[in-house]
Amino acid sequence: MKTSFSLNENQRLRPQIPADQATRQPKFGAALTTATKHANVLVRNENPILIDERTWPDAPPPLPADRWDDEVDKALAGLVSDEQRDPEKVSNLIGTLARHPKLARPYLRYSFYLLYSSTLPDRVRELAILRVAHQTGSEYEWAQHVNLGRQVGLTDDEIDAVTRGEAGDDFERAVLIAADELLEKYNLSDATWSALSERLEERQLMDLMFTIGSYAALAMAFNTFGVELDKET
């Protein structure tokens, strides 16, 4: 059973899930309720698993302002804006990563390469990430990349089509299929590789594989940690 996403009249993400799966306790404690009511079911299993038994011994993400220290500031320096280094204004993604400064810095460098510097066309990158977000049931990732997708020219109709595995041409359809195959089989079929190779050269193909894999891992983290949507999302 999969969580499905749609855009309402305010163009915000609204997952459609059965009512009997709409409540659960977050793993970071009782303070997290909104996102965990929607996104944190292991949706790729035939029988979804609600993992509400485990709790984290610490406060929920993002890292509380009184625990931001020089180590956190150093980890983020030169990588994010001054606003994203302000614990009162930081996104929930950065605030969560701030809990682990040694992980945050190298991860953000890698992530920013995939997002801003890879060889992939922006449109291809966002289609792939949106498909990963949908297939993994990651509400946070989906919401972020709905916005980024629009910025690179995707229409709302095209974004909605991603949830159905539909695209404007055979190549973009192959991008979505690539995400599906990698998430399910951890490999690409010869037919999908061939279809992608018609427009993507070697380095672009490599970047696509790493983009899909990396955003799948990020979705796992978002879902497991119960990361809530940012207030402005």
What is the topological layout?
Layout: E1 4-7, E2 13-16, H1 70-76, H2 92-97, H3 101-117, H4 122-136, H5 139-151, H6 156-163, H7 170-185, H8 190-197, H9 202-225
Antiparallel strand pairs: 1-2
Helix pairs in contact: 1-3, 4-5, 4-7, 4-9, 7-8, 7-9
GO molecular function: peroxiredoxin activity
InterPro entries: AhpD-like, CMD-like
Biased composition (Polar residues): 1-10
Quickly describe the structure:
The protein has helices spanning 70-76, 92-97, 101-117, 122-136, 139-151, 156-163, 170-185, 190-197, 202-225; strands at residues 4-7, 13-16. It is mainly alpha-helical. GO terms for molecular function: peroxiredoxin activity.
User: Helical segment tally?
Assistant: 9
Shape: elongated
Poorly predicted regions are 8-53
Class of secondary structure makeup: mainly alpha
Order of helices and strands: EEHHHHHHHHH
SS strand fraction: under 5%
Residue-averaged pLDDT? 81
Distance between the termini: 26 Å
InterPro entries: AhpD-like, CMD-like
Organism: Mycolicibacterium mucogenicum DSM 44124
GO molecular function, one term: peroxiredoxin activity
Protein name: Carboxymuconolactone decarboxylase
